Structures are given as structure tokens and as C-alpha cells.
Amino acid sequence: MNFVDKSAMFPEFSTWVIKSMAFEAGSSNAGNALIVDDDSMMHFIHKFLLSRFGFKIFVAENGKQAVELFQAGQHFDVVTMDFQMPVMNGVQAIKKLRDMGVDSKILGVSACDEATVKELFLEAGANDFVTKPLTHDKLASFLKNI
């Protein structure tokens, strides 16, 4: 049986584990977090990180599903929102959520590091933007500033 060394695939993986486990013990009930991304690997990474900060995790595959969750009465304290997704992209979803009066803290996340993508997210109503991959340090910085 061959095992894949995750630390080779994700160099920060070991650091994430150590730092996340060192996060204060009192954060076991940080609230609800919604991951909005069509990529299952991003689900894994974001779930891993957010759960280490004490969040209960929910997932939507696209912006439309995220909007529908809020319309159904769900509340999320934090949302990580991808840019490019089928059906409804992240910027469209954020605009719709803000128009609905949603005040959740939204972190725009994209593999595209162009300044225009960050501008689009912030103009739509995101609280901040980071490039993928989301890391412990990027998430900690976002959570500290909200």
C-alpha cells in the first residue's frame, strides 16, 4: 500500500495542523461557517481550517445554493466565497446576499490574484479577499479583523 505524503503536496499542511491545534481552547463554538466553492479539494481545505477555529461547517456548491440557504432562514457568521463557480459566481452571490440584508462576514477567495478580482469582491460587499490556497494565517488574519 502506498501512502501519499500530504506535506509534500501541501507544504503548509503540517504548519496548519500545529497552529490550528494551538488555537485557544475556548473557541469550540465560534458559530456557523458556509463554504461556497465548486471544488471538493477546497471544501476539504476550508473545512479543515474553519473547524480548527471552532466553526460548524456547511457547504454550498455555487452562489445560488448559498443564496437559497440564506433565503431558507439559515444564518452563517462567516462565509468563504469562491469567485468562479457554475450557476452563480461569488460576486453575484455576494451582491444578492447584501441586497437581502445579510450581514455575515464574507471572505472572497480566488485562485486569480488580479487586482480587479479583489475590487469586484469588495465592491460587491465582501469584507476581505485572499488568494487561494486559504491558509491558517490568512484565515486567522481575517477572523481577527472582523
Structure description:
- The protein starts with 5 loop residues before the first helix and ends with a helix.
- A five-stranded parallel beta sheet has the order 2-1-3-4-5, with helices on both faces.
- The chain has helices at residues 6-9, 13-22, 40-52, 63-71, 90-99, 115-124, 136-144, and strands at 31-36, 55-60, 78-82, 105-110, 128-131.
- With 146 residues, the protein is α/β, with parallel strands linked by helices.
- It is globular.
Going across the biggest sheet, name each strand in turn.
2-1-3-4-5
Name the helix and strand elements from N-terminus to C-terminus, one letter apiece: HHEHEHEHEHEH
Which overall shape is indicated by the principal axes computed on the Cα atoms?
A: globular
Major sheet: 5 strands, parallel
User: Beta fraction of the residues?
Assistant: 15-25%
Query: What's the assembly state of these chains?
Result: single chain
First-to-last CA distance: 45 Å
Based on DSSP secondary structure assignment, what is the total number of beta strands? 5
Instruction: Please tally the helical runs, counting DSSP H or I stretches of 4 or more residues.
Output: 7
| Rg measurement, Å | 15 Å
Roughly how much helix do the residues carry, as a percent range? Answer: 40-55%
Organism: Heracleum sosnowskyi
InterPro entries: CheY-like_superfamily, Sig_transdc_resp-reg_receiver, ST_Response_Regulator
GO molecular function: kinase activity
Protein name: Hybrid signal transduction histidine kinase I
